[in-house]
Specification:
Largest sheet: 4 strands, antiparallel
Helix content: over 70%
Strand order of the largest sheet: 2-3-1-4
Shape: rod-shaped
Mean pLDDT: 78
Order of helices and strands: HHEHEHEHEHHHHHH
Structural class: alpha+beta
Radius of gyration: 31 Å
Distance between the termini: 25 Å
Strand content: 5-15%
Amino acid sequence: MSGADRRVLDEAGGLRAMTWVMAIMLFLTLLAAALGLGTRQSARALERQLAGRLTVQLVAGDPATRDALAARTLVVLRRLPAVRHAGAVNRAELARLLEPWLGSAGADADLPVPAMIDVDLAADADPAPVIAAVRRLSTSARVDRHQRWMSPVSGFLDTLTWLALALVALMLAATAAVVMLAARAGLDTHRATIEVMHMLGSTDVQVARLFQRRIALDAALGGVAGGAAALAVLVFLGGKLGALGSELLGGITLAAGDWVILVLLPPGFVLLATLAARTTVVGALRRSL
């Protein structure tokens, strides 16, 4: 781009304000996109973990009766083709879980604590036959599906995903609007120069190229700065999430396909700014000149 071309749009100190605007817009867009993609991965991981998990609770006043019922239930469950794994929850583990409420009394063998069995179903297995088999052994048995417990959390993650995608769309629309305003301001500022260029034989498309080149350069420079800042923030947050040790928050990760989408966003950002500038300038010139 020649010096004359660059002067069609103002620049101060080699870096126009538009460069910083583009950097900030892309930075926020990348963070919103990463949030949406990360929460989507977390929701999918949660669904995979809980879709085939059941907990069977067997209640009986007599400990011997309860233990015998639990043993029979385990035998039946392990014979079912839909069950991948079934195991009784250790009494000591139950006492540990009850300790915040019952204190040391939770370890009392005479305490009528239900026997609990964790069940992992085979992939895509229907839980209905498993539940029916348990109920035939004991009508008072309770079968809880983990997926039902965590459905509000899964729904919240889905909401976050859609909200993040909406923010990305809004940021892209705001970027196009900023570019259009900048292009129109450049046209108003250099209207006399553009009229002279027209008299010398320049076409609307040639004039528009001067604007789109300048804005494309601003968007590219801003994209590099905003992308680098967003990458640094994502790496920082990823380290913090990993240090928490939370299974739920630890699922907020980015798959290979998600990184491809994030890498493609900056070039798409530059293309959007270029097309918005070209469309705005050509349309304005055809209407007014």
